[in-house]
Specification:
There is one protein chain. The chain has about 90 residues and is mainly β. It is built from no helices and eight strands. Strands 2-1-4-6 form a four-stranded mixed sheet, with no helix packed on it. Strands 3-8-7-5 form a four-stranded mixed sheet, with no helix packed on it. The protein starts with 6 loop residues before the first strand and ends with a strand.
Length: about 90
């Protein structure tokens, strides 16, 4: 449905989608589908979803425009980008 929150799923040691585009004020849901814990941490430290165990979720609201690169704190090769526009 159109009212559903944008979601970034962590699965198979990857963020899906690799790039997510949203508007300012949007809340993005991060959900870990892997058996191992992962985090979603901004490279610039502007947000951190902390450790998410399997099937746990965390919602983060993006209040300003910008390009936010993120990674998993435990698995730095896992990266993604969230682009927030006006």
């Amino acid at each position: 449905p159109a009212s559903a929150k944008p979601e970034m799923v962590i699965q198979n040691f990857a963020f899906q989608p690799k790039e997510l585009k949203v508007k300012v004020g949007t809340t993005v849901k991060f959900t870990n589908k892997d058996a191992l814990a992962h985090s979603a941490t901004a490279d610039d430290k502007s947000f951190d979803a902390r450790l998410l165990e399997q099937n746990q979720s965390k919602e983060i609201r993006f209040a300003k425009a910008g390009t936010f690169k993120l990674h998993c704190g435990l698995h730095p090769s896992m990266t993604a980008t969230i682009v927030v526009s006006e």
